[in-house]
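Hello support,

Our group uses your service weekly, and this is the first time we've seen a run hang past the timeout. The protein is Xylulose kinase. I'm not sure whether the cause is the sequence or the server load. Input pasted verbatim:
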Amino acid sequence: MYLGLDLGTSGVKALLMDEEQEPVASASSDITVSRPHEGWSEQEPADWVRAAEDVVGALRHSHAIEIAAVRGIGLSGQMHGATLIDSAGGVMRPSILWNDTRSFEEAEALDRDPIFREVTGNIVFPGFTAPKLVWLRRHEPQIFDRVAKVLLPKDYLRFWLTGEFVAEMSDASGTSWLDVGGRQWSMQLLDKCGLELAQMPSLIEGTEVSGVLRPELASRWGMKNKVVVAGGAGDNAASACGVGAVRSGEAFLSIGTSGVLFAANDRYSPIAASAVHTFCHALPEVWHQMGVTLSAADSLSWLSAIVGSPASRLADELGDQLRAPTGVTFLPYLSGERTPHNDASIRGALTGLSHQSDREALTQAVMEGVAFSYRDCLEALKSSGTTIDRVTAVGGGSRSHYWLKAVATALEIPIDLPAEGDFGAALGAARLGLIAAEGADPVQVCSRPAMRETIEPDTSLHAAFEDAYQRYRDLYPAIRSIHS
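Update from on-call engineer: The timeout came from a worker crash unrelated to the input. Re-ran successfully.
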């Protein structure tokens, strides 16, 4: 048996997988996000541990025999978070998360230094880890001066599981400290942030063994084997392992809290100016490119909270038949935007409202706005020479057929849905746990699952969606001029 632990923004999920890669059971536990100031987003690492204890405990209660047979654990996690550890191994402050934009000025300053794009192949985004540490150096020097280790969120769970300070290539790519082409920490970039190599965890590939589960945890969970913990992956690379997007040209689209359009590559080919991420993949000698929108399913959650109705009900109210855009346009920039604008200070907007703009019209506009944000990502990837002919959909938002039809029509490419089960980050993490424990072939393990159906673009609405996309595109500079 193999266990995948996925530390997301809203909770921890555990997935138990057998040697045939069939999911056996899963469990989840919620985590809250603290937003003490505008643009801030934080979590307590102790909540991650509590949630991980909850999910593994639940699986032990329901599947004790299977849990006892676990040989490998893989980790997946939300990226970019700054988790600060002192010399005694204690957490120094709440972790600053990926969608925290307080360090936008520091990010701009670092990005003006050309060495960062030259070495990392990426823009220094406000959500990345490096500008967070520069912000701390300026605003919380009493903490910065005592930092012994900087860990990414899932790597804090690894520390709790194994006692080891280890990171892996895909997650480390989002720090602005990694030489992404060379797959190693850059001492030059660390120095520019006032940090030393000793403050970084050691680096391995996602398929390698990072440590062994601490005996006290193995005993508590009834695990009988020596359990290895794989390097794992950042959430998007883990999802790619789950859906089999590990070979050049394979792609997936995630409609989660944030949104991602992800394409695997067999070579390092950065295109920083387009605000497309070029990162290491979880597999050795593989890279990937992705466009990112910061508020995907989170946009529908926002509307859900405003109208007081569950997001699933809002989606169901639209039915299955795709509608032509109404003229109401939504910009999903609730936390700023990554691709293609790299703009942390821009905020969302609803335009074209009338007396006829009811709840369904608002839901439709939100879904279309997110669909058009994926179109922006696709256009950015195209500008780099990356071709995507079809994608596999993952994430909570992919449960809405209406939303998938809107995205397929906006992108003008088909979207495949896996046949059954969960093929997201937790499964990808479990697959990495299997590879590390058994020395299995990574490409063979991370194969593409069977698909149950394909969502085709609605060609009859192509012109209407194209007109709506152009309105969407025209709104950003107009809104930007108001915010500037």
